[in-house]
Amino acid sequence: MAPQGSDATDGDEVTTLEGAEPSIPGVPNDEDEAQSVIARLAADGWSEQLIPGSDPATLRCGRCREVHPLSEWTIDDERRLEGASDPADMVLVVAATCPSCGAQGTIVLGYGPEASATDSDLVAELPLRSPDGRAR
Ligand SMILES: [Zn+2]
Q1: Cα(101) to centroid(ligand 1), Å
Q2: Ligand 1 midpoint to CA 37 (Å)
């Protein structure tokens, strides 16, 4: 696998974000990719920041500050971003709607062997759509 394709189109393994172009060719940055997914979702209305609650598998709403078990949130979207630099460094961007106030927000969760217990507990509760993260 060539680290740098001059002008070649990306393979279908790559998570494509229509209209988004990597700023640095060859070595995409995981954080940048997550940020661009979040920016895209924010533009579509998921503008609140969600954070893990203090109990396992709970989320706190960035708008109303209420904490609810993840199962009570409406999960609107999940985007898996496989680590570009390190395959073990995998993150999942989740878009969800608050059951209390209806705010739409996003959270980035790590998954895989390197993920924190907090993130793993949340990911375990997600209704994952398919192994490659694409909607069926
Ligand atoms: Zn809320």
Answers
A1: 4
A2: 21
Amino acid found at 64: C
How many whole angstroms from 35 Cα to the centroid of ligand 1? 22
How remote is the CA of residue 61 from the centroid of ligand 1, in Å? 5
- Identify whether the C-beta of residue 89 lies closer than 8 Å to the C-beta of residue 50: no
Instruction: Indicate if the pLDDT at residue 12 is higher than 60.
Output: no
Q: Which tokens in the block code for residue 107?
A: 């959270």
Task: Tell me how far apart the alpha carbons of residues 103 and 63 are, in angstroms, rounded to a whole number.
Answer: 7
Number of H helices, E strands in the chain: 2, 7
Task: Spell out the alpha helix ranges (H) of the chain.
Answer: 30-43, 117-125
Give distance in angstroms: CA of 5 to centre of ligand 1: 44
Distance from the alpha carbon of residue 131 to the mean position of ligand 1, in angstroms = 29
- Confidence band, pLDDT 50/70/90 cuts, at residue 4: low
**Tell me: the pLDDT tens digits for 91-116?**
999 999 999 999 999 999 998 888 99
| Prediction pTM value | 0.70
